[in-house]
């Protein structure tokens, strides 16, 4: 899980793309995969950057589901 860090109790990573279209396409891929495992990230997009935060509200912390989704997201890049 290269590049992921813990900030404010959440697993975080910023991805940078060449343009907005690529960044938004990445968000769409994440949405499809997140829905499959029923675990949804916090996604923030500004132009060519996508910031992702993963956190499990049920346990008020980072869970195995967050780690699993982080690994899936890394493979989408």
Describe the protein:
Helices cover 40% and strands 27% of the residues. It has 77 residues and is of the alpha+beta class. It has one domain (5-76): Transcriptional coactivator/pterin dehydratase (Gyrase A, domain 2, 2-Layer Sandwich). A 4-stranded antiparallel sheet has the order 1-2-4-3, with helices on one face. The longest helix is centred in the middle third of the chain and has 18 residues, at 20-37. It is globular and about 35 Å long. It starts with a strand and ends with a helix. 14% of the residues are buried.
Uncertain runs with pLDDT below 50, 5 residues or more?
Answer: none
Report how far apart the termini are.
Answer: 12 Å
* CATH homologous group name: Transcriptional coactivator/pterin dehydratase
| CATH structural class | Alpha Beta
Rg, rounded, reads 12 Å
Secondary-structure content class: alpha+beta
CATH architecture: 2-Layer Sandwich
Kindly report the CATH topology.
Answer: Gyrase A, domain 2
Note the total helix count: 2
Count of domain modules = 1
State the share of residues found in helices, binned by percent.
Answer: 40-55%
Please state roughly what percent of the residues sit in beta strands, choosing from under 5%, 5-15%, 15-25%, 25-35%, 35-45% or over 45%: 25-35%
Order of adjacent strands in the largest pleated sheet: 1-2-4-3
Major sheet details: 4 strands, antiparallel
Compressed to H and E, one letter per element, the order equals EEHEEH
- Overall pLDDT level: 96
The shape is globular
Number of strands: 4
Short précis:
The chain is an alpha+beta fold and 77 residues long. The chain has two helices and four strands, in the order E-E-H-E-E-H.
